[in-house]
Please model this.
Amino acid sequence: MIPDKKVNIIFTASSVSVVAGYVPNTYLASKHAIVGLTKNLCAELGKLGIRVNYISPCMVPTPSVMETIGITNKNAVLEIGAAAANLKEVVLQEEDVAVVAPYLGSDDSKYVSGLNLVVDESFSIVNPCLGNVTTKTVA
Model:
């Protein structure tokens, strides 16, 4: 990686890395660990020309998210995410997260390192607690 100097590393975290609230501790801890690792690697590897960024999606109905919030129906997860999101008229899908990775991996982002690209329909800006939204919506 070092001789090439066009290498970049992209991690996936979660929007819970930027909002406070009740989320099962192991999940929250693992996402904060990715954030810390990314920032540290960014500082260390930037000297070598290696970029390190992370993507933080919210409420994408992956098996991990569905298990975490205790819902097995993909459409129900999409509805919860859409109801909690600030940006209306769109529903976050897996593809919406997938399209940002090529940007971070391309020369278009050659001066971007240490970025947390939050893909969450501005949920983390206007909602202070992810856990309360999922709990109130499901209950």
